[in-house]
Design goal:
This protein is of the alpha/beta class and about 140 residues long. It has a domain at about 15-65 and about 95-140: Ribosomal Protein L13p, Chain: A (Alpha-Beta Complex), CATH 3.90.1180. The chain contains five helices and six strands, in the order βαβαββαααββ. The chain has helices at about 25-35, 70, 90-95, 95-105, 115-120; strands spanning about 15-20, 55, 75, 85-90, 120-125, 140. The strands form two sheets. A four-stranded parallel beta sheet has the order 5-2-1-6. Helix 1 (about 25-35) crosses helix 4 (about 95-105) and helix 3 packs across helix 4.
Length: about 140
């Protein structure tokens, strides 16, 4: 059997839109990561950028399960002694709600140059308006609970 190698130029552009107020954060991030990598298509090629473009709206209304709203923290380190910054989920939700979704997806993608290109194909917006209506994105319905 011959192995096929599909180039990125030969794949059709696909656009999807996710409403973060209708999906649980982790399940939505996993589905977005699969679509960005192109693993939802039969012509998946690991070394090519054959995935889709994803638009996420209503990032400020994300849905979480369990006690994550009270206990989840985000850490970042400046590189200096004593430079560890810890932010609660509530603070991130107030200041930068789009970063919550972006971080969840980024951590599920490959940690390579190709992974960075995949992440650049995802656009996250806090409200329900976005400038990508000309691409006619397909709305992704609520996933299983």
């Amino acid at each position: 059997m011959k192995t096929s190698h599909i180039r990125a130029q030969d794949t059709a552009e696909r656009w999807y839109i996710f409403d973060a107020s209708e999906h649980v954060l982790g399940r939505m991030a996993a589905d977005i990561a699969v679509r960005l990598q192109g693993k939802d298509r039969p012509e998946y090629t690991p070394s090519e950028l054959g995935g889709a473009h994803v638009v996420v709206v209503n990032a400020e209304k994300i849905v979480l399960t369990g006690k994550k709203g009270d206990t989840k923290e985000y850490q970042r380190y400046s590189g200096y002694p004593g430079g560890l910054y810890i932010h609660s989920l509530e603070r991130m939700k107030e200041r930068r709600p789009h970063d919550i979704v972006k971080l969840a997806v980024r951590r599920m993608l490959p940690k390579t140059r190709l992974g960075k290109q995949m992440l650049s194909r995802m656009k996250v917006y806090g409200g329900d308006e976005h400038p990508h209506s000309a691409q006619q994105p397909t709305k992704v319905e609520t996933l299983g609970s």
